[in-house]
């Protein structure tokens, strides 16, 4: 079970580093005249992600988990997702944030995975919320938080796209690109 806590700690540390980067980027974006959108749903999104890790920790602690050969499948998906996450975040550079902050008239990023998809980072989050719990046979966390995340993204993505369309040429540049691989 120690390996499970180590894995969770590594993922949580990664998120905390991302929050630090997001805060630095937020300061830069706002100093450049960035406009924030989606402030009403943002605290709910933070609560969802914090609740995910709390639920995962509780379910792993009370369950009898073991790393099996079947755990290799979600592990591979999580590793691939992390690679795509790093690719997406590094492609956005200073424009990446956990909040929706749009710099008016800024060029829309169309490099990295954004050449193919509108929201590769959200695709990564979907994969993580579904497959990180499966590493530890935390099925309830996977199911409940996948559904909660789907509901959140139904609010988040249209809000982000509306903000981008209002301040940049996003609508024109991304009209042919899919939101995710299949949609």
UniProtKB/TrEMBL annotation:
GO CC aspect terms: membrane
Membrane topology of the entry: Multi-pass membrane protein
InterPro entries xref list: ICMT_MeTrfase (IPR007269), Metal_cation-efflux_comp (IPR052527)
Subcellular location: Membrane
GO MF annotation list: protein C-terminal S-isoprenylcysteine carboxyl O-methyltransferase activity
Transmembrane segments: 41-58, 70-88, 122-148
Superkingdom per UniProt: Bacteria
Keyword field: Membrane, Transmembrane, Transmembrane helix
Pfam families assigned to the protein according to its UniProt record, in alphabetical order: ICMT
The protein, known as: Isoprenylcysteine carboxyl methyltransferase
Organism in which the protein naturally occurs: Shouchella clausii (strain KSM-K16) (Alkalihalobacillus clausii)
């Amino acid at each position: 079970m120690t390996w499970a806590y180590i894995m969770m700690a590594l993922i949580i540390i990664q998120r905390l580093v991302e929050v630090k980067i997001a805060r630095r980027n937020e300061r830069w974006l706002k100093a450049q005249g960035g406009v924030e959108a989606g402030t009403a749903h943002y605290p709910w999104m933070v609560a969802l992600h914090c609740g995910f890790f709390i639920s995962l920790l509780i379910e792993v602690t009370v369950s009898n988990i073991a790393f099996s050969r079947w755990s290799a499948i979600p592990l591979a998906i999580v590793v691939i997702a992390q690679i795509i996450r790093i690719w997406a975040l590094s492609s956005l550079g200073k424009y990446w944030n956990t909040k929706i902050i749009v710099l008016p008239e800024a060029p829309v990023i169309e490099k990295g995975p954004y050449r193919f998809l509108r929201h590769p980072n959200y695709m990564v989050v979907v994969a993580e919320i579904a497959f990180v719990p499966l590493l530890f046979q935390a099925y309830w966390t996977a199911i409940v938080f996948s559904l909660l995340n789907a509901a959140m993204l139904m609010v988040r993505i249209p809000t982000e796209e509306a903000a981008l369309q209002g301040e940049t040429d996003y609508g024109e540049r991304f009209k042919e690109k899919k939101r995710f691989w299949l949609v």
